[in-house]
Amino acid sequence: MGLKTKIILLAVAPLLVATAIITYLGFQSAQELAAEELAIYEYNLVDAKKKALKNHVEIALSAVDPILKNTSLSDQEAQRQVKAVLRELRYDYGDEGYFFIYDLSGVNIVHPTQPEFVGKNLWDFQDDLGNYLIRGLISAAKSGGGYHRYIWGKPPALLHEEKLSYAILIERWSWMMGTGLYLGDVYKELEKTKAVMNENIQNSFITVIAVVVITVILVVLLGLFINLHEHKLADSRLNTVAQRFMRLQVNERRGFSRELHDGINQSLVSCKFRIELASNKLRRDDSHEVVQGELLKASDLISQTINEVRQISHNLRPTLLDDLGLDTAIRSLIDQFSERTSIKIEYHFDADVEMADEFETSMYRLTQEALTNIEKHAEASLVTLSIIKKNQGVEFECKDNGKGISANPEPGIGFINMRERLELIGGDFYVESQKGKGTRIYATFPIQ
User: How many CB atoms lie within 10 A of CB 218?
Assistant: First the structure.
């Protein structure tokens, strides 16, 4: 496979994979969102039907309420008048908007659209789904008024369709009165809305595919027009750019280091002042709370200073490198290390040559990282550190007699940082270690 093809595939393949994943996730999310919106829409439509049914029943009840409360009428005459009113009562749904009455045994008393049911006992009547609809309506009415869904013939063709009814109880004669609305228009509206949503989702999907296709074509065409014959110069150009970048960083951090030096120093001086103040108060037999307050303030200052140092320590160039040179800067590191750990260090420096700033910084950081790893993990009592000029480069070697890490050490973040720093300036980096036999870190730095 040619280099051109590899580069084009490297550009196109992640694009296609990422687009496919994003498109799939977007398609799934759009479908889920559409389903949720349809469910909410259906609930609102059905809820509107329920409110309308309840209002119609209340209006019908108010129409017959004077008859029910007229005590001068006999039950027979009052029932006749109530049935007559409800047979004629309609609302704005044509033949759908009628009212029905059943007694609690399931005998139909009023049914304007299907008078053949009057006088028949429909207690055991079932719809197409096996639902005992009259029983359900009577049960809803007994509970103080309620809703029931079932399948019923819709006038005038009496085609079976899902219906929602609301029923209440006329307590004077223990009648169940109710009315219902067909839900076909609700489902038609839902189907229309669903079709529009699906169309929008499909259009979005097609748009994404079109954009991806156009993008892939542009990437391929661009790849074909790029002159790939210059790839042999890529490594050298990359190294040049990296070295220039490191030089720029060194120059910037040099000034930055000087600025922060005084700030951190002042924080440490303030901390020392707080500790001395606490010591004086302790000698004066001041209260425990007063002394502790000063120590807490000193602790806060130390914590702030530590945080500042941690934040900038890996990004600053030590001022000792500029003021006194690499040898003195590394000796300062060794002195600080020995004070903290009491580990003996044998140090040898024989590289008194002029090196670029980025080389000195890298060697200093390498020494710093190696000593830090020894302090944290090695449990060593002796460290041998040497920096020697050989041929056209400088060799760095750091050995300890600690517990080692393993035959093939896993690269930690410190080792990775060292290796990357050396690679950027054209150097090499090696780590050798065995359990119980210590660790050896070896690196080479080109002088030019």
Answer: 10
Comparing CA positions, the residue from 306, 68, 329 lying closest to residue 175 is 68
Which one is predicted more confidently, 382 or 35? 382
Beta strand pairing call for 344-350 and 382-390: parallel
- pTM here? 0.43
What percentage of the chain exceeds 70 in pLDDT?
83
| Gap between the Cα atoms of 354 and 372, Å rounded | 27
Q: Which amino acid is at 3?
A: L
Whether residue 58 lies inside any domain: the answer is yes
Q: How many CB atoms lie within 10 A of CB 383?
A: 26
> Do residues 301 and 267 touch, judged by C-beta distance below 8 A?
yes
Burial 219-249 (b: 16+ CB within 10 A, else e): eeeebeeeeeeeeeeeeeeeeeebbeebeeb
**Count of domains for the chain:** 3
The pLDDT value recorded for residue 345 is 92
| DSSP-derived pairing of the beta strands 146-154 and 393-400 | unpaired
> What end-to-end distance do the CA atoms of the chain give, in Å?
37
Distance of CA 328 to the CA centre of its chain: 50
- DSSP H helical segments within 117-233, as ranges? 133-142, 184-225
* Amino acid, res. 335: D
Q: Hey, is 237 helix, strand or coil?
A: helix
CATH number at residue 39: 3.30.450.20
Instruction: Decide if pLDDT at 255 tops 90.
Output: no
CB 134 within 8 A of CB 36: no
Rounded-to-integer distance, Cα 352 and Cα 422, Å: 20
Can you give the residue range of the structural domain that contains 246?
236-313
DSSP conformational letter for 115: G
Residues 137, 125 contacting (CB under 8 angstroms)? no
